[in-house]
Design goal:
Blueprint (H helix, E strand, L loop, with lengths): L18 H17 L3 H16 L5 H23 L6 E6 L4 E5 H27 L2 H10 L4 H30 L7 H32 L18 H23 L2
Antiparallel strand pairs: 1-2
Helix pairs in contact: 1-4, 1-5, 1-8, 2-4, 3-4, 5-6, 6-7
Length: 258
């Protein structure tokens, strides 16, 4: 619901790179981060992503806010693996009901998964902050991703803001009717009714929008207009080459690591 606050209009070195190059490199970095088999390499990739994010002039607080939920998920994954996988005990936590045993193999695997998650999510956040969604989708279209997938992704992205507007309108109406002064159980019920009403109203509104598009001549079989008309500059091609060589070197290091 906070996608509209992404600062894609800022002026930074990363913002000035062609969207096709940024999308290719950062998505490749996400895939690479998810496939590394050594936590040291994943940590280095995460540090690199964090350094790139700081060049956006958005501030460390923006990054921390975006990584708060992924950090919690990664921590849960780490703890679940720590106490369930392995053969060599690291330490034991005696409890009244059960005894928790932390395993050495689980700690290493959990650390690897933790670094993978954080590196991949940071690169995805970096892409979202530095590249407009239209450039990402049109780059995927150039890669011959099926048009139906691109169109569905585009409509989903646009309908998120419809849900956001509907939620804000209904929440303001609830505040005007003193909904926040009710009991806790009443407010829980109101939240459930509010959520269901938001989904129903959003569905009705999206249906009206789609019908309006059809009435204005929407033809899904029509050829798409080219979004990128200018060629990629030599500077951006050089950046793409350097990034590709860095990713290849990291992949080779991951395979030869012992």
């Amino acid at each position: 619901m906070d996608l509209s606050r992404y600062r894609t209009e800022l002026d930074s070195p990363l913002h000035r790179i062609d969207g096709r190059v940024k999308t290719g490199l950062l998505l490749a970095a996400v895939v690479l981060a998810a496939t590394l088999s050594h936590w040291q390499l994943a940590l280095g990739l995460w540090v690199c992503a964090t350094g790139l994010f700081l060049t956006l002039r958005s501030g460390i607080r923006e990054l921390l806010a975006r990584l708060l939920i992924p950090f919690g998920i990664a921590w849960v994954v780490f703890l679940s693996v720590l106490f369930t996988n392995g053969n060599h005990a690291l330490f034991v936590i005696p409890l009244k009901i059960v005894t928790l045993t932390a395993w050495q193999e689980g700690a290493m695997l959990g650390l690897l998964l933790f670094m993978r998650i954080m590196a991949a999510v940071t690169f995805a956040t970096l892409l979202a902050f530095s590249t407009p969604m239209i450039e990402i989708l049109e780059t995927l279209r150039l890669w011959r991703v099926p048009d139906v997938i691109i169109d569905i992704a585009d409509m989903m992205y646009r309908y998120i803001f419809i849900i956001q507007d509907t939620a804000h309108t209904m929440h303001r109406a609830q505040l005007c009717r003193m909904g926040e002064s009710a009991s806790w159980s009443r407010r829980v019920g109101d939240v459930g009714r509010l959520a269901s009403s938001i989904l129903i109203k959003s569905l009705d509104r999206s249906t009206r929008i789609y019908q309006a598009m059809l009435s204005r001549g929407l033809n899904e079989a029509a050829p798409n207009m080219r979004f990128f008309t200018a060629p990629i500059s030599h500077r951006d091609k050089l950046i793409a080459g350097i990034g590709a060589m860095g990713a290849l070197a990291l992949a080779i290091a991951n395979l030869r690591w012992r």
